[in-house]
Structure formats: C-alpha cells, structure tokens
Specification:
- This protein has 220 residues and is an alpha/beta fold.
- Helix 7 packs across helix 10.
- The protein folds into 2 domains: 134 residues, Response regulator (Rossmann fold); 72 residues, Winged helix-like DNA-binding domain superfamily/Winged helix DNA-binding domain (Arc Repressor Mutant, subunit A, Orthogonal Bundle), CATH 1.10.10.10.
Length: 220
Amino acid sequence: MEKRPATKVMIVEDDAELRAMLCRVVERTPGLGLVGSHGDGESAVAAVRQAKDAEVPDVVLMDIQLPGMSGIDCTRAVREANPETQVLVLTVFGDSENVFQALKAGASGYLLKRGSREEIVEAIGMVRDGAAPMSGGIARMVVESFRKPPPREGRGGGSACACLSPREEEILGLLAKGYQAKEIADQLSISFFTVRFHIRKIYEKLHVRSKTEAILKYLG
C-alpha cells in the first residue's frame, strides 16, 4: 500500500512559548511535518502566497488573537491564497464570537489552547481528512450565542434547512450542539451507519463538504 505523504503543518501563534510547544509536537509526531511558524498573520499569509508546492501547508494552526492582522482576517487570506489549506483555530473558552467569525472566514474547526499533545495531533488529522474537530463545550457555547429563533414552530433550523427531512434536521441540530455521530446514534436509537448516511445526505442537500459548513448554514 502506498504510504501517505506527511501532513504539512504551519503554526501561527504570537505566544513564543506556546508556538515553540506546538512546533515540538508537530516535529516529533510521525506523519506530520513543520513547514513554518509565525508570530503574526502578515508573515504567515506572505509565506503561504510565496510557498512552493512542497512548502504549502495542508493545515494551519491559527491563533485568533494576533498582533496586527487578526486571526480571522489571516484565516480568510490563507484560504484565499490556497483554498486547499485547512485552518484549525486555536482558542480559549471566552472566544465564542471570534470562533464563529473564524468559521465564517473559512476555518475548518477549533482547538483549545493548552490542549494535550494527543488532542492536537488528533485534531490535525481530523482536519486533514475533511472532518471538523469541535470541543463539545465550545460548540454548545457558539450555538447558544448565535442560534436564531426558529422561523417555524417545531423546526430547529433556518431557511437553509427547508430542503431537509425532519430526521435530517434533527441530526443536524444535534451536530450543532456538539454531538458526535455515535452519540447521535445512541440518542436517537438508530445505528451509527444510519447516522452517517443521513449526514452524507445533509451535506448533499446543503451543498457543503464538512460538518462546519453544515452547522454554519443551520445557525445562519
């Protein structure tokens, strides 16, 4: 079987100590490769724009609170420079509004600062594979902060969800609350594979490619 290329990771974090820790995690993890670390958004965006193929990051770990260009603006600029690069936002529990804005700017998920090595590596792998890592606690905070009143009684989503079946809306609502597929299966007393089937149909109907995009449509 052909060996998968290493995931190229860039770090954008203004805290030098945390940036060094994240760099060590990436450098010491088999299957990951560090292609750059930056203390500000301007230099990170410039690096992505100028990068040769072998240096273009697959995943960027992005601090929201950066000097100068914000992490939100940096996320948008990185995604414009290279749409294939996935951005994983580094956040603290008080950042729900900023996290939401970063997701709208193109981030694929978010990771708590000071997370364990295992959590960081798992989140990078999930983003590279097209998933959207989200801490359940932060997901619920974002949902509670930004959920709009339902436009019709008994239905959880906005107009973007009009094309979904009641079961699909129910599953999308649970995803927005931070539930994982297995937890949804347990909650609804259906199989894990049935949940995965419904999630694929949700993506198709909403014309999205990830859980993050689906949830943004649900919240919007």
